[in-house]
Amino acid sequence: MKKKGKLLITDDNKSVLKSLQLFLKHHFEELVTCNNPNQIPDLMRQNEFDVVLLDMNFAAGVNTGNEGLYWLKQIRKISKRTVVILFTAYGDVNLAVESMKHGATDFILKPWDNKKLLATLKCGVELSRTKLELEHSNQHRKLLTADLNQPAIKMIGESKAIKNVYELINKVAITEANVLILGENGTGKEIVAREIHNQSERKDQVFMNVDLGALSESIFESELFGHVKGSFTDAKEDRIGRFQAASGGTIFLDEIGNLSQAMQAKLLSVLQNRIVISLGSNKEENVDMRLISATNAEILKLVQEGAFREDLLYRINTVVINMPPLRERGNDILLIAVHYLKKYADKYGKNYTGLSKTAKDKLLNYSWPGNIRELKHCMERAIILADKSSFEAADFQLEESDVTIDLSEKPISLEEGEKILIYSALKRHKGNISNVARELNIGRQTLYRKIEKYNIL
């Protein structure tokens, strides 16, 4: 059996240290001894000990236990997860109780019983490792959920098409039904998912947004279900997955139509059983989350072609919400345009007073292939370039010139242009890598490499 556990034993009696070392070295991964407690801080900064076996009395003729209590407090200051077991020749119940109040885990009397000592130390190692796993899980959970519970973004619109969406949201939000949101890119599928969450019984819990389109097959299982240390080359510590982090709240699986057959099978198993097994582990973990999915793909066509599992579709589409494209929402285009014009005028310190009739006509007659996302960027650009507060049709670049470069300006290289695009997108999305990757239509790993290449962050 593989030895586990790193121990520090501190006692002023060198014979005791020698005896303990001879006995315990066969049972633990690493053993460090010292007879001077003043060495404890330096030793703990150099090593991550699971357990410290600490003598209560060091000065000759002193048996109050005060020295042990002092060093117990110092150890606790250095490491909260290190388990401290006290060691003394003087059995005193009051001293034991006092030491427990200050964080000691157990109390061993001299002369000791080897079996009892070994069992106590092994329990201490398990407790310390559990604390470490919990600490890592909590840190990872905070990392995963750091930017998830954002302030709600309300949908804007009064068209019949969007009112139908409102009605469905109101009906489905109060249930636990799985929801599938369909619609073109940029129509606001994530906003609908967040609104369902915000109206649900889970509104005070996490909303976990997972961009499945940005996950490669090689990291899919680790990212969604977690992994244990050593399960693959770069697995240097245990990590919980997105499903564990979302437990109790809502998980939003965006771009679910992009999954390979293998990834679909793994996802289906979790959704059917609500049980996750981390990569490299045999331990089952129950997860409790509301499922909302979305895709811009023609999902029924994918099923007919055999590219998407029919049983998975039935699992995710208890209720289907179709997001209308912006071109079908009539006057909503102007309501949304004015919203963003005011927002960006405030952001950039500009004034906005209105749209001319020709400007309104131009916005209403444009097809908006990029939907709300394109409209939003168009309004931001107009505000940035504006020299006046009232906008005319010419202030909105919606033709082919929208994507061309003015060659009368100083030419830039392809790399310089790419750097500008990435920097602007990062700034727009406040560093949200998934959103930037989605906007630029590249994978997250590719985006990370380019950020590093151009030294953007």
From TrEMBL:
One Pfam assignment: Response_reg
Residues the record lists as 4-aspartylphosphate modifications: 55
All copies of domain Response regulatory, residue ranges: 6-125
Keyword DNA-binding: yes
UniProt xrefs under InterPro entries: AAA+_ATPase, AAA_lid_NorR, CheY-like_superfamily, Homeodomain-like_sf, HTH_Fis, P-loop_NTPase, Sig_transdc_resp-reg_receiver, Sigma_54_int
Domain Sigma-54 factor interaction, residue spans: 155-384
Assigned keywords, A-Z: ATP-binding, DNA-binding, Nucleotide-binding, Phosphoprotein, Transcription, Transcription regulation
PANTHER family: ALGINATE BIOSYNTHESIS TRANSCRIPTIONAL REGULATORY PROTEIN ALGB (PTHR32071:SF113), TRANSCRIPTIONAL REGULATORY PROTEIN (PTHR32071)
Descriptive protein name: Sigma-54 dependent transcriptional regulator
Lineage: Bacteria, Pseudomonadati, Bacteroidota, Bacteroidia, Marinilabiliales
